[in-house]
């Protein structure tokens, strides 16, 4: 497995298993630098969102990387305030404009806004049919949200991006997505850094001569979960991706799975007010 290795989504589109997240990365040079550095170090997938307010910087970094657009996989997301049919189409156009791109590889509904996400999904289906986006999906959807969506959807979501890390393994949701052919993607895979201090993970890391972050990100991949850790430091962007030269044993996978406490660092998709 290598940094360019990709999962095949249910519509045949290839999405890299590993990418760069840019949540809380400042727009301007911080965003453009981290994106350029990641791409120049072999990353091909970049994940942003309208609400991150850094799409311009991300677009700039893509340009400066010098890598042909068709070799990259770019994701953005429609924000809650823009949900609904027409407003989603307009929001998508704005995202494209800020990124200065002709199309997106993946567009996601950021949160399951009650009473709105079905209409929003219809807009994503239109964007997909019009060829403006190669794949469509959702983020932060629980099983019941997915069931509601699948009843109305003409096109099944290709991806569900969820909070996923050793303290929140979301086993049932992951199994449901797998049974529906929906690829799971992890946001906040390191639980915003908290898991790097976990004694079990530190112990496992020592035995492989890897860092705690590398152990967790490798655990994601071995569970067939796409992962997008965020960093703005070049050495860490490079180190995070250095996870393709070793494999965790089943025993160590089980030890990490056993750390689950169903504990979130982000909001619960059943209870958010933004």
UniProtKB/TrEMBL annotation:
Q: Which CDD domains match?
A: AKR_AKR5G1-3
Q: In this protein, which residues make up the domain named NADP-dependent oxidoreductase?
A: 26-260
- Annotated active site: 52 (proton donor)
Which residue numbers mark the site Lowers pKa of active site Tyr? Answer: 77
**Residues that coordinate or bind substrate:** 110
Query: Which InterPro entries does the protein's record reference?
Result: AKR, AKR5G, Aldo/ket_reductase_CS, NAD(P)_OxRdtase_dom_sf, NADP_OxRdtase_dom
The superkingdom of the source organism is Bacteria
Q: Name one GO molecular function term.
A: oxidoreductase activity, acting on the CH-OH group of donors, NAD or NADP as acceptor
Keywords from the UniProt entry: NADP, Oxidoreductase
Name the protein family. Answer: Belongs to the aldo/keto reductase family.
Name-wise, this protein is 2,5-didehydrogluconate reductase
Q: What is the lineage of its organism?
A: Bacteria, Bacillati, Bacillota, Bacilli, Bacillales
Report which gene this protein is encoded by.
ytbE
């Amino acid at each position: 497995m290598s940094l360019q290795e990709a999962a095949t989504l249910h519509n045949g589109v290839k999405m890299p298993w590993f990418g760069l997240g840019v949540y809380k990365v400042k727009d301007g040079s911080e965003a453009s630098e981290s994106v350029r550095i990641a791409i120049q170090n072999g990353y091909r997938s970049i994940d942003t969102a309208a609400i991150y307010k850094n799409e311009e910087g991300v677009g700039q970094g893509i340009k400066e990387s010098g890598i042909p657009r068709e070799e990259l996989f770019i994701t953005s997301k429609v924000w809650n305030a823009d949900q609904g049919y027409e407003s989603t189409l307009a929001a998508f156009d704005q995202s494209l404009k800020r990124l200065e791109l002709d199309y997106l590889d993946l567009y996601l509904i950021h949160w399951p806004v009650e009473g709105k996400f079905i209409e929003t999904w219809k807009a994503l289906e239109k964007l997909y049919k019009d060829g403006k986006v190669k794949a469509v999906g959702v983020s932060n959807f629980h099983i019941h949200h997915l069931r509601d969506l699948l009843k109305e959807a003409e096109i099944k979501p290709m991806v569900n991006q969820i909070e996923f890390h050793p303290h929140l393994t979301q086993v049932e949701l992951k199994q449901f997505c797998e049974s529906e052919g929906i690829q799971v993607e992890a946001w906040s895979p390191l639980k915003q850094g908290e898991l790097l201090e976990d004694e079990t993970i530190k112990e496992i890391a020592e035995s492989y001569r890897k860092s705690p972050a590398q152990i967790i990100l490798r655990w994601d991949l071995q569970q067939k979960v796409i992962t997008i850790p965020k960093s703005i430091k070049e050495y860490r962007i490079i180190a995070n991706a250095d996870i393709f030269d070793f494999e965790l044993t089943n025993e160590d996978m089980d030890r990490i799975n056993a750390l689950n406490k169903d504990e979130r660092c982000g909001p619960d998709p059943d209870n958010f007010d933004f």
